[in-house]
Amino acid sequence: MTKLLSDFAIGEKGVIVKVSGEGKIRRRLFDMGVTPQAEVLLRKKAPLGDPLEVTIRGYELTLRKDEAVCVEVEVK
Hints:
Layout: E1 2-4, E2 13-19, H1 23-31, E3 39-45, E4 52-56, E5 59-63, H2 65-68, E6 71-75
Antiparallel strand pairs: 1-6, 2-3, 2-6, 3-4, 4-5
């Protein structure tokens, strides 16, 4: 089952399938290591759901919700 990273619950894991978005957002995600086949874990969410803290490639990364909505993940 695939879902967007922005829809993940805390503690949920998955493997990135696709990174969409345009121009700067997509480039920024790739530069931070958010690429297909990378394993991702949602660690924390801010009270209003923005930003999200994820663990990817062994480090913690904070993403805004508008960035997380561009990441499609296969849930484990």
